[in-house]
Specification:
The chain is built from five helices and no strands. With 125 residues, the chain is an all-alpha fold.
Length: 125
């Protein structure tokens, strides 16, 4: 790495942040146009800065949320009964599901019976 590359890389954080002096800024920009390695490093530092800014502006939970959650978890509650998919559903839905299961079972049985009958006739001595 050349001496100028080392100098430019030392200046890159200030260049990325926009705090580099007006005298040095055009010199760094000129070098970045000509040096692929330094340009790649600039891209990495810019992506890192963008990620850090995004983290800094992330949503902060409301004041006192942790205390509220801890208080709620400490208070005992009665256990709610578990409801199954069908047992807690409306009666009409239960009947419909039962009928659909019966039809599907009958259909599967008929297909199995028809296949076995066909095979018996085909391989009869």
């Amino acid at each position: 790495m050349s001496r100028i590359c080392r100098e430019v890389r030392e200046l890159l954080p200030a260049y990325v942040d926009g705090t580099l002096s007006r005298v040095r800024r055009p010199l760094v920009a000129l070098h970045l146009r000509r040096c692929g390695d330094c340009q790649a490093e600039f891209s990495r530092q810019r992506a890192l800065r963008t990620s850090l800014v995004a983290l800094a502006t992330a949503a902060v939970p409301p004041e006192g949320l942790l205390d509220q959650l801890l208080e709620q978890s400490a208070s005992p509650r009665g256990a709610a009964p578990l409801r199954g998919a069908v047992s807690g559903a409306r009666p009409a839905l239960s009947v419909a599901l039962l009928a659909a299961g019966a039809v599907a079972g009958a259909g599967a049985g008929w297909v199995s019976w028809a296949s076995a009958r066909h095979l018996r006739h085909r391989f009869r001595p």
